[in-house]
Amino acid sequence: MRLVADADLRPLNSFRVAARARWLLELHAPGEFSRLRDEARLAGLPWLVVGGGSNLLFVDDYPGVVVRPLFRGREWHEDGDAWRLRVGAGESWHETVRFCVEAGRGGLENLSLIPGTVGAAPVQNIGAYGVELSDLLHAVEALEMKSGKRHRFAVDACGFAYRHSRFKAEPGRWLILAVELRLPKRWRPRLDYPGVAEALAGAEPTPRAVSDAICAIRRRKLPDPAALGNAGSFFQNPLVTAADYARLRAAHPGMPGYPAGAGRVKLSAAWLIERCGWRGRREGDAGVSAEHALVLVNHGRASGAGLWALARRIRDSVAARFGVELEPEPRVIPDQ
Ligand code: EPU
């Protein structure tokens, strides 16, 4: 355990913006949290749990305690027709995916190369190339920070939806300790998302080959946060009614839309942003990726406030042109 006052958050956010936390608490074991929770100098302060910092934008300094769970460990359990894997919240998500595919156990491969930790994955229900974490999650173990009580949430109790969960809906309440994944032994590759089958280039679709293909697509389309600060998609893909989509498509021929169940259609935020002329644009060091219009990037010394100002201008121009409201995908701190 380590408690640091006035900590530098720059290395802890993948946008690489400058920000400081009043306190930074690094935890190596869940029990350490209970010992610190009641410390007088931390009393009354807000808590913010940060995994890999790849889904956050600090617009300002954080006036409370940033908690960094570093819980490790991966254990396999056999469960009838599936393999169960219990993983500590501090493990790397991508390394966990590779750990599975190297063992020949498929299921997670479409979620390869998503930055961040295992504990952060359920918060926004990470998803890519036709698969969402909730498809493979068995349970989440979490500590209620206020009471210090441990809870185990089965998948149906996690409130999962597109980029959403109960953990996201209740910020500051839960510290995720571990995630249990369930990988069916009877594996079927998911190659239906546009471009995935092509990226396999005729190779036999083993879990590892699909993972390699997904990595190749992501490396081509998305900037590497280690080289250029970013937090992946900055906006969620908006959901509209089928009637609204028909009206929008009549006014804007070619506008993509994907059926999203219950008479709803998912629009492509990247397409809307690109049509407003933002792709590849730069305002100082805050910019929009030239490879993917949904990704905001820090070209070097952009501030969180500068990136957020750019995001608001993008949101306003999409609203003015299409009448569609974009919602940020990462958490913006402090809440805006
Ligand atoms: N498009 C554009 N311009 C662009 C990029 C894309 O017009 O610059 C259009 C194209 O029509 C393309 C469509 O958008 O066919 C979809 O693009 P893409 O396949 O890249 O998917 P996305 O909807 O933009 C979502 C996720 C990504 C995830 C990909 C692949 C959200 C907010 N984003 O992006 O997730 O990797 O699908 O499944 O749902 C993330 O959440 O950080 C993230 C990167």
Amount of helix: 10-25%
User: What oligomeric arrangement do these chains adopt?
Assistant: single chain
Number of helices: 8
CATH fold annotation of the largest domain: Uridine Diphospho-n-acetylenolpyruvylglucosamine Reductase, domain 3
Mean pLDDT, rounded to whole units?
A: 96
Strand order of the largest sheet: 6-7-12-10-11
Key features of this structure:
alpha+beta, 336 residues, Uridine Diphospho-n-acetylenolpyruvylglucosamine Reductase, domain 3, Uridine Diphospho-n-acetylenolpyruvylglucosamine Reductase, domain 1, Uridine Diphospho-n-acetylenolpyruvylglucosamine Reductase, domain 2, 3 domains, globular, four-stranded mixed sheet, 8 helices, binds uridine-diphosphate-2(N-acetylglucosaminyl) butyric acid
List the SSEs and their pairings.
Layout: E1 2-8, E2 20-27, H1 30-37, E3 47-49, E4 56-58, E5 62-69, E6 74-79, E7 82-88, H2 93-102, E8 127-128, E9 131-132, E10 137-144, E11 150-154, H3 166-169, E12 174-184, H4 196-200, H5 207-221, E13 229-233, E14 239-241, H6 242-251, E15 257-259, E16 264-267, H7 269-275, E17 282-283, E18 286-288, E19 295-298, H8 304-322, E20 331-333
Parallel strand pairs: 2-5, 3-5, 4-20
Antiparallel strand pairs: 1-2, 6-7, 7-12, 8-9, 10-11, 10-12, 13-19, 14-16, 15-16, 17-18, 18-19
Bound molecules: uridine-diphosphate-2(N-acetylglucosaminyl) butyric acid (EPU).
